[in-house]
Specification:
- Strands 1-2-3-4 form a four-stranded mixed β-sheet. The chain has a three-stranded antiparallel β-sheet with strand order 5-6-7, with no helix packed on it.
- The longest helix is centred in the C-terminal third of the chain and has 29 residues, at about 495-525.
- It is built from ten helices and 13 strands.
- It has helices at about 5-20, 35-55, 55-75, 140-150, 210-220, 260-265, 400-410, 415-425, 435-445, 495-525, and strands spanning about 75-80, 95-100, 105-110, 115, 305-310, 320-325, 330-335, 410-415, 430, 455-460, 465, 480-485, 490-495.
- It is about 25% helix and about 10% strand.
- Helix 1 packs antiparallel against helix 2, helix 7 runs antiparallel to helix 9 (about 435-445) and helix 7 (about 400-410) crosses helix 10 (about 495-525).
- The chain is of the alpha+beta class.
- Among the domains are: about 1-125, no CATH class; about 300-340, no CATH class; about 390-525, Arc Repressor Mutant, subunit A (Orthogonal Bundle).
Length: about 525
């Protein structure tokens, strides 16, 4: 392929190929100036070729072909690796370009289908060992032999602007070494035994070297295990063997064993004991006495919201608690049950004269299946009837008035079955309608009975209650533990104050109608 180039061009291509091989070059140009200079030299060579050919046209054609071939070999400076040459043709092996981005500028060669970067310092890639190696064994002679084999450095390359190239036969110069050590000869064989260190790398503890002084000191010591002494052993005192107080006669100075001290540490003082953790008492009564004219104090903590728990026997289940919320005594039970039991009377007393619920309008007194039997008041109960707390007022309608009159007609005399069972014929008689009768009357007038507050209905699930035994006292016999079974059921009830108001409204309306009719009749009589 080189037959289309002139002499100067062939030399340039040869040198570019030498750059790609990267074996006899120490430094590479770091910019595109060298390539530009080479292109200029090629152009000059083309012009000279044109003159020597004899015809300008032929010379120009050959020069153009040479430039095109050069464009296919050196592609110039680029920021990215090219995919084709400067003529748009496929890349040729050995083509080069200057990459202005990679490694801050470097020369790359297209080789085996990929771009290869030529190192900036080729000296590190070329062996520096002189041909034939070093024969001398003496250090000074070896250095002299190395200096003798060095070659002069050529600084120019075929006049193409490459001023720091080196020939392939170049051997790097070590330079003058000052202060070289003087050895008569270089040892070529030897071992650690030759210098008395044959055991220097022993890893076995028994084979490690010990100095004579150390061996003498060890020989004067007794073995820690099974030492045998001969003759009298003097100078040993009770303190040396940890028995400095063995013969003390003072009680406070008498020795105490570790086990004895540990046992003492687990005991409390008889006077004013202070303990931590959990106390457990089993068997027999637990009696706490404060003494005459003194308070017995239970204290769970020094801050508010502190409680003492009551645990069910045989388990860790908490069934109640006693404590303080910071300003009041608080007694409670777990779940839904809290029981206060008195022998015959349960008395709730308050210095302020009030026994009240904790939250307003939130709790009931009794249940439909746990009713109070009777109540006693010196005055009638006060029922809230504040207009500010009521709304949607209206007058009774005609159908409600008719139902109220019918309920009044349903009032009967009756006796309670439970009273009959206990008192027989002595059971007292009571007056009033039944809820079922009132419900039937309301429904007959097209009214929903449960839309009115005087009609009540409750139901409950069955339950089982375990009652603990009660110990006997001076005025009460012992009561054995027993189980109470309450079956599921339901019950109807009246709010009589509202029922009476409903009936009264109906009777008043009826009375008004009667009076109006009487007035009409009287006015019709002459």
């Amino acid at each position: 392929m080189t037959d289309v180039f002139k002499y100067g061009q062939q030399d340039l291509i040869y040198q570019l190929n030498q750059l790609a091989k990267a074996k006899d070059i120490v430094d590479i140009p770091h910019n595109s100036a060298v390539a530009a200079a080479s292109a200029a030299a090629s152009a000059a060579a083309a012009a000279a070729a044109a003159e020597s050919d004899g015809t300008a046209a032929t010379a120009a054609s050959k020069a153009a072909a040479a430039l095109k071939s050069l464009d296919a070999r050196y592609l110039g400076a680029k920021t990215l690796p090219p995919d084709v040459d400067n003529n748009g043709d496929a890349l040729l092996a050995g083509a080069t370009y200057w990459d202005t981005v990679l490694n801050s500028g470097c020369l790359r060669v297209f080789q085996a289908g990929t771009w290869v970067t030529i190192p900036a310092n080729l000296a590190s890639q070329i062996s520096s060992t002189p041909a034939g190696g070093i024969v001398a064994t003496d250090v000074q002679a070896a250095l002299a032999e190395l200096d003798a084999k060095k070659a002069a450095r050529a600084m120019t390359l075929a006049g193409y602007g490459i001023t720091d190239a080196l020939p392939g036969s170049y051997v790097p110069t070590w330079g003058s070494i000052t202060g070289k050590p003087q050895f008569a000869a270089v040892a070529t064989s030897g071992s650690k035994a030759d210098v008395g260190l044959d055991s220097v790398d022993n890893t076995s503890d028994a084979s490690k070297p010990v100095s004579t002084a150390t061996a003498s000191a060890l020989a004067g010591k007794a073995s820690l295990s099974g030492a045998t002494f001969t003759g009298a052993v003097n100078g040993i005192t009770k303190t040396m063997v940890g028995m400095g107080s063995v013969d003390n006669t003072s009680d406070t100075a008498k020795p105490v064993s570790t086990l004895q001290q540990a046992a003492l540490n687990s005991k409390v003082n008889i006077a004013n004991p202070t303990t931590t953790g959990t106390w457990s008492h089993t068997g027999g009564p637990l009696s706490l006495s404060s003494g005459a004219s003194a308070w017995g104090v239970f204290r769970s903590d020094i801050v508010g919201n502190s409680y003492m728990a009551f645990i069910k026997g045989g388990s860790s289940l908490q069934i109640g608690y006693l404590g303080s919320d910071g300003g009041a005594l608080v007694i409670g039970g777990t779940g839904e049950n809290f029981v206060l039991r008195g022998t015959s009377h349960l008395i709730l007393a308050s210095d302020g004269g009030v026994v009240r619920p904790r939250v307003d309008d939130a709790h009931n007194l009794g249940l439909s299946n746990y009713r109070w039997r009777n109540s006693y008041f010196s005055v009638a109960p006060t029922i809230t009837s504040d207009a500010r707390e009521k709304d949607m007022f209206r007058a009774l309608e005609a159908v409600e008035i008719a139902a109220a009159a019918d309920i009044a007609r349903a009032i009967r005399v009756y006796r309670w079955k439970t009273a009959i069972a206990i008192k027989g014929g002595g059971a007292r008689e009571h007056i009033g309608p039944t809820v079922q009768a009132a419900i039937k009357i309301m429904e007959s007038h097209g009214l929903d009975p449960f839309n009115y507050g005087f009609i009540c209905y409750d139901s409950w699930k069955g339950e089982t209650i375990e009652h603990a035994a009660i110990e006997a006292t001076d005025d009460r016999e012992m009561q054995a533990a027993w189980t109470e079974t309450i079956p599921a059921s339901d019950r109807y009830a009246f709010r009589y104050d509202e029922l009476n108001q409903f009936i009264a409204a109906g009777l008043e309306a009826r009375q008004t109608v009667i009076e109006a009719r009487l007035a009409a009749l009287e006015s019709a009589v002459p």
